[in-house]
Amino acid sequence: MTVVDLQQAPATQLHSGQRIVNDFSFVVATTNGTGSQTSNNTLLRALFKMGVPATGKNLFPSNIYGLPTWFYIRVNKDNYRAHRSQAEVLVTYNFDTFAEDLAALPPGGVCIYPMDAPTGKKKWNVVTPSRDDIYYYRIPVDELTATMNPDQALKEYIANMVYVGAVAYLFNIDMGEIERALSYHFSGKAKPIAMNFGLVKLAYDWAKDNLQKIDPYWCEAMPDATFTKDKIMIEGNAAAALGAVFGGVQFVAWYPITPSSSVAENLQSYLADYRHDAEGRATYAIVQAEDELAAIGMIVGAGWAGARSMTATSGPGISLMAEFTGLAYFAEVPAVIWDIQRMGPSTGLPTRTSQGDIIFTHFLGHGDTRQVVLLPANMEECFRYGWEAFDFAERLQTPVFVLSDLDLGMNQHVSSKFEYPERPMDRGKVLTAEDLQKLGGQWARYKDVDGDGITYRTLPGTDHPNAAYFTRGTGHNENAGYSEKVEDWHNNLKRLARKMNTARELLPQPVIQRNKGAKIAIVSYGSNDYAIKEAMDYLKARHDISVDYLRILALPLSPKVGEFINGYDRVYVVENNEEGQMAQILRIDFPQKAPNLVSVARCNGMPLDAEWIMNQVLERK
Amino acid sequence: MGRTKTNELGLLAADYNGKPSTLCPGCGHNSISNQIQQAAFEHSLDQHFVVKMSGIGCSSKTPAYFMGRSHAFNTIHGRMPSVTTGVMLANHQLKAIGVSGDGDTGNIGFSQFKHLVRRNVPMVYIIENNGVYGLTKGQFSATADYGQKTKYAGKNELPAIDLCAEALLADCSFVARSFSGDAKQIRSLLRAAFSHRGTAVIDIISPCVTFNDAADSTKSYFWGKEHREILNEVGFVRGQDDIAVDYEEGKSQDVQLHDGSWVRLKKLDESHDPTDRTSAFRVLEQARKEQVIITGLIYIDQERSTIVENARITDTPLVNLPEDQLRPSKATLDQALSELFG
């Protein structure tokens, strides 16, 4: 076996000998369906347990087997958790993308690749890498895998453990933590743990005996664990589902669509675990519908009947739900819709992230419609809106959209432990039979008694002769009767506008961060938060520019957003879509500030990164 | 029957009234509305637990015209099935009466109809079938006869969809057909349907007096009166009633419904057993070939479990569960968090 790759350049030519510790990124290039996700999450979890802030981003194809997939692991001692487009260390098993992956490395980067005999088109043994400014390590993947004598069916899957072992040796990742991560992944099952960790160990030992560490990149445990102590790792879709369980969700209907399916799948398993009565009966119902039309129809029906109801979908599903959410808006039926955003238009890129549904969902429905939108930025907020969205939907008697995205939803994120809901459920304005008795049976479904635009409803099954009303999407008067009268129509739309104004104050208020001497500001929302905070640090440290920052948590916009943007001559509205959708909504709601808004928008399937945001601010002064 | 007669709930027939109809005079739908409220009265349905569901179209407007003390949801075109599915899982104590049309069910809502039936959602699903779109003024629906002509839409070049056959194919547990002019039969079928635990589909040929009443349409009054073949007469006997129904020894078949009541089928066609799915397909196909409307109970299956039963939910309807049964404890959250990687 080779001791050191012959193509490897002498270490001194490429770097000063200075170590770069806990501040670089790996990219692992494989093909999908080969099971590399287990290996990648194992590395991520081991780093987390070493106290090292590490963030994983899975760039996977919309495909089941055989297309290229990349997994980025950013290691950062300062806890910057945004995506970085530049990785320094390439680990590749994918022959097809080898040339482009290699070309993407910076000078002095690292490339780890197999040295095995050719299989099919793959001729790793004769490949001659094109660059001489890269540190190469070659590993005998097939040979080491064969030593474990795995089932033929598992061979490709387990082979990924070889790079885990090699990376652990080369970059100093704790083997004990790797074993613990595998034990977590395989739920403590001895056989797969032994098989997988056995191969990791074999590869580690092989690397130790045969490879000479020549590159400058190192991971080092951070014993203080400032950024990882008492934290958990979770995906946004799981956090959302767990939140909904604690929000008392009673009814779920869904139709499978990437990247939202795991919201429903997590709901299914959490509900099965935690939501039964003493006799083991379910305190919820969940239906996989025939399409998104039916999924939204079912939750509108259940919401109308008085159940806390939700669905989860993505762009194309939202398109199909437009008619029903228009009905629910106008007939005033609560419902919660999670949109895990992916790239559009049309089918777009189902496995790439975006914030492209902001305008569409906020105005979803024909005619004059304004929908409530919540914008989680992290795992804590995914959990929180998981339960709180029901309170808002029932209080406002309207659909509530929660706009997560693929980046939040399907990647593992480090998070604080979730807080238990701090207040009882808000079931909104519902009149019971006793209430109706007290009112002498006098009530009107769409009469604004309290002046907040929110009216009282009764639920089917309310035992009072005057409880019933006729719910319709057609024009109606205060008594829910069909009406074509101009004044009835007008009064109703004016009241709905009043209700949306109530929502502006009721919904989560923006998070504002002010910095001394700031003359410009950034406005953004959702998963861009990590990249923005990092960009703000860079702007200060490298260019001495202070920036204030407002993060929008909900639509319709809070008046506080208007007050904030009034304070600056230039406000950069940063978002992950092509058209600057939030900037447009700001221009609609605060037209007097329109000239001062600078839309910083980009959509290429990747989460935004700090360098790009910083450069945009610098270039567009 | 006198106007002062009360039912088991002490209510008068008039207590089941709705608002005045705004449909065309003589519309078959009005007669169906009348029979729904009459059957509900006779059956002593508690209106507070009834939900009237509909989609869009002339038929879907009718829930306003009967049972004014029941909640109603006039949803969107073709989507009554999904909404009702959600309603019934949220509160399985409710009794859903859905009214749809041939366009609402056979065209835009065809998929939802099939999936509702397949799930056996507890509801009475009435189709007021006239083969045309009335509210948009006379276009053909999917149940229009092949080769049929109307003044506005011209000639229909497509074969008709038979909604009873489609229901049957999707394993519907109660399939019936009637004619809007046959008040007695509709009432009997409705009462049987009220007692059925799963989806009860009643396809009622209800001629459109304005847009489809040509003599050559199977959905016209002329055709209906001339070409109707009564499959079986349904007399409804409730468990606690002792109403005798007229049936001839050796020519009837009793079917016990889930709630203990019975439907009695007076079989005019001895060869059809409504618990026999194959026979049900055969009579529908025969009727299609002979261009007759068979009426009566075509198929019934009392064994099929409903979506509510399959969901294994609490006996208390989900909507009535208190907060402490819906929101697990803080200890449970701590438990869930401890199981995450961390």
Structure description:
The complex is a heterodimer of chains A (621) and B (342). Chain A has 4 domains: 219 residues, 3-Layer(aba) Sandwich (Pyruvate-ferredoxin Oxidoreductase, domain 3), CATH 3.40.920.10; 183 residues, Thiamin diphosphate (ThDP)-binding fold, Pyr/PP domains (Rossmann fold); 74 residues, no CATH class; 109 residues, 3-Layer(aba) Sandwich (Rossmann fold), CATH 3.40.50.920. Chain A is globular. Chain A contains 21 helices and 24 strands. By secondary structure, chain A is of the alpha/beta class. Chain A is 37% helix and 19% strand. Chain B has 342 residues and is α/β, with parallel strands linked by helices. Chain B has a single domain, classed as Rossmann fold, CATH 3.40.50.970. Helices cover 30% and strands 20% of the residues of chain B. Chain B is built from 12 helices and 13 strands. In chain B, the strands form 3 sheets. Chain B has an 8-stranded mixed sheet, with helices on both faces. A 3-stranded antiparallel sheet of chain B has the order 10-12-11. In chain B, a hairpin with a 5-residue loop joins strand 11 and strand 12. In chain B, helix 1 packs across helix 7, helix 3 packs parallel to helix 5 and helix 4 crosses helix 5. The radius of gyration of chain B is 21 Å and the shape is globular. Chain B starts with 27 loop residues before the first helix and ends with a helix. Classes of the chains: A alpha/beta (621), B alpha/beta (342). At the A-B interface, strand 9, helix 9, helix 10, helix 11 and helix 12 of A face strand 2, helix 3, helix 5, helix 11 and helix 12 of B.
Tally of individual helices of chain B? 12
Helix content of chain B: 25-40%
Helix count of chain A equals 21
Low-confidence stretches of chain A: 1-12
Content of β-strand of chain B: 15-25%
Alpha-beta classification of chain B: alpha/beta
Chart the SSEs and their pairings.
The complex is a heterodimer of chains A (621) and B (342).
Chain A: H1 11-14, E1 20-21, E2 23-31, H2 36-49, E3 54-59, E4 68-76, E5 89-92, H3 98-103, E6 110-114, E7 135-139, H4 141-147, H5 155-158, H6 160-171, H7 175-185, H8 190-210, E8 217-218, E9 231-235, H9 236-246, E10 251-254, H10 261-274, E11 285-288, H11 292-305, E12 309-313, H12 315-331, E13 335-343, E14 349-353, H13 358-362, E15 372-374, H14 379-396, E16 399-405, H15 406-410, E17 412-416, H16 433-438, E18 470-472, H17 486-506, E19 511-513, E20 520-525, H18 529-543, E21 547-552, E22 554-555, H19 559-565, E23 570-575, H20 581-589, E24 597-601, H21 610-619
Parallel strand pairs in A: 1-8, 2-5, 5-6, 6-7, 10-11, 10-12, 12-13, 13-16, 15-16, 20-21, 20-23, 23-24
Antiparallel strand pairs in A: 2-4, 3-4, 9-17, 13-14, 15-22, 19-21
Helix pairs in contact in A: 2-6, 2-7, 6-8, 7-8, 9-10, 9-14, 11-12, 18-21
Chain B: H1 28-42, E1 50-54, H2 58-61, E2 71-74, H3 80-90, E3 95-101, H4 102-108, H5 110-119, E4 123-129, E5 149-150, E6 154-155, H6 163-169, E7 174-179, H7 183-194, E8 199-205, H8 221-227, E9 228-230, E10 232-237, E11 252-256, E12 262-267, H9 277-290, E13 293-300, H10 307-310, H11 323-326, H12 330-338
Parallel strand pairs in B: 1-2, 1-3, 3-4, 4-8, 7-8, 9-13
Antiparallel strand pairs in B: 5-6, 7-13, 10-12, 11-12
Helix pairs in contact in B: 1-7, 3-5, 4-5
